[in-house]
Design brief:
This protein is an all-beta fold and 345 residues long. Helices cover 0% and strands 49% of the residues. The protein is built from no helices and 28 strands. The strands form 6 sheets. Strands 17, 18, 20, 21, 22, 23, 25 and 26 form an 8-stranded mixed β-sheet that branches. Strands 3-7-6-5-4 form a 5-stranded antiparallel β-sheet, with no helix packed on it. Strands 8-12-11-10-9 form a 5-stranded antiparallel β-sheet, with no helix packed on it. β5 and β6 form a beta hairpin.
């Protein structure tokens, strides 16, 4: 990244660098002359921003006065990390990612130490607040975490994104008692995949098709009109799900340097009732005014299988940029064309 803090003027919609020279280092000084190193979490107290500067395992203070400075509260430099509480240059953190300000105290997710620490921004002190330092998932007064990331404070509670435990942990700021937030409505069972996020999703229902039982193939062709084009630097992702008496929940697959048309082998059982395919990609506009948009499409196709069915189901979808009318999808079944597999279900 750019190793900078950027600011956005909400009134004028303008954005640009606010602090950091772009060099990866720990250099204190005037805002645009100082250096940061992979700044991650950020919080504020109305006078300063406080930044978890991850790569140098430091917590930095960034003045909200445009003529102000960046200074280091705790931490030293690249490759200077550890797990040591104390004050000033004695303190060691290890790749902190999250930080939250509350009542004059910084609560820091000391990610690779599997701890939450409190930092005193005025005196440069660091004290272990939660966690044993051993990765795990344990509630109570001797809680364990596994690479905690984000932190946030509300109503006397500290909410922790416990990354490798895939959980939200809740700590009472007074008793330090930790619980795991119980989330309802999530599905995770045999043959059923967790809910997937497909950004800017458009759902399309297509007419039924008869395909050959056994090995078939699916061809996706999203036609992107000029002056737009597929962004080759962004991943193309797809997922195919087959429902029926023998459902198949295909994994989400990323195709590096993917292009349309995209051909995917299908294995269809005799009891197949429906094929659902989703694809996500980024397209951009050519020219100096270039704009990139992430787009997801998901098609649902009723399917019957037969020994004499077609070998291929092809989806042709003319993409229409966001400001234009809705496109019409064309669907056709094709026989006797050799497959070119981009991935397996």
């Amino acid at each position: 990244g750019s190793h900078q803090i950027w600011a956005m003027n909400l009134q004028h919609g303008e954005i640009g660098p606010y602090a950091g020279s772009g060099r990866e280092a720990r250099i204190d000084g005037p805002l645009m002359q100082a250096a940061l190193a992979q700044p991650s979490g950020i919080t504020a107290d109305g006078t300063n921003l406080y930044v978890a500067d991850s790569e140098i395992s430091s917590i930095r203070s960034v003045s909200l006065d445009p003529k102000g400075h960046i200074s280091t509260i705790v931490g030293l430099d690249l490759f200077e990390f550890g797990d040591i509480d104390g004050q000033g240059e004695v303190v060691r953190l290890q790749h902190p990612l999250g930080v939250a300000h509350h009542n004059g105290v910084l609560y820091v997710a000391d990610t690779y130490n599997h701890k939450i620490k409190t930092i005193g921004p005025r005196l440069g002190t660091a004290v272990t607040f939660l966690g044993t330092g051993t990765p795990g998932l344990r509630d109570g007064e001797t809680a364990q975490f596994y690479e905690p990331g984000g932190v946030s404070v509300a109503d006397g509670k500290l909410y922790i994104a416990d990354t490798n435990n895939h959980a939200i942990r809740v700590a009472d700021l007074h008793t330090k008692h930790v619980t795991t937030l119980q989330l309802t409505g999530l599905i995770n069972g045999a043959g059923v995949s967790m809910a997937e996020v497909w950004p800017n999703l458009e759902e399309v229902s297509l007419p039924g098709q008869t395909l050959r039982t056994g090995q078939s193939r699916l061809t996706l062709n999203v036609e992107i009109p000029a002056p737009y084009k597929l962004n080759p630097g962004s991943p193309l992702e797809y997922q195919v799900e087959v429902s029926g008496a023998s459902p198949q929940a295909g994994r989400r697959t990323t195709v590096k340097d993917g292009q349309f048309p995209l051909q995917i082998p299908l294995a269809l059982a005799a009891d197949t009732a429906q094929v659902r395919v989703a694809v996500s990609f980024v397209y951009c506009r050519d020219g100096d005014e270039g704009v990139c948009v992430i787009k997801s499409l998901r098609w649902t196709i009723p399917v019957q299988t037969a020994s004499t069915g077609e070998e291929e189901i092809r989806i042709d979808h003319p993409l229409v940029p966001e400001q234009l009318p809705t496109a019409t999808t064309q669907l056709s079944a094709i026989s006797n064309q050799p497959p070119t597999a981009e991935g397996e279900l």
